[in-house]
Amino acid sequence: MTIAFDAVSAYDEAFSGKLTHVIDHIGRSQPFEVAQWSAAPDWVDRELFIEPCDAATIDVGCGPGRLVAEIAARRVPAMGIDVSAEAVRQTRIRGALALRRDVFARIPGEGRWSYALLADGNLGIGGDPVRLLTRLSDLLSSDGRVIAEVAEDGAGFVCEHRRLRVEGRLSVRFEWAVVGLDAIEDIAARAGMRVVGTNSAGGRHTATMVRTHP
Prior knowledge:
Number of strands: 13
Shape: globular
CATH architecture: 3-Layer(aba) Sandwich
Number of helices: 7
CATH topology: Rossmann fold
Radius of gyration: 16 Å
CATH class: Alpha Beta
């Protein structure tokens, strides 16, 4: 297979509905769950991410927008950001505000968001969760919270290179991280945050974090 396109273009094609798999650093393959992320929120999404957000919320790596659209439908100020133009387009079709933006670029409302979501493994963005959480602390209000999906207890902390395979074409490598329940407290502390609670539903897990010094 020929490396033909960058990771952002691969995400665009994946979100457009093309058959996509995630390939890890040792060649293992797993489906890229576009259908799940494009569907309506399920009860797990509601319990872990939607119901806790009762004030201004930014969904980082919002994908097709199932979470941010549902939060906005509850008359809560909400915005999604994603590097994929196709993801942003689909989020807007759902009626939610979304911007094509890298989380490390300038974000509207910095310092005023009450919640920042990292659902669907997005704590792994960039392969450096400490850097990512440090960045999110800049976006939050003094009492703001990060709600991040984490892997199961015992998963530890793993940083690896991944690729997307879209209908036989491989993207370039990009860095990704996996953080388990057993590792999130240390990761949060290194980012100047602390875990104030965890939640589990339907086999998925989240950690809620606040800044150590608001």
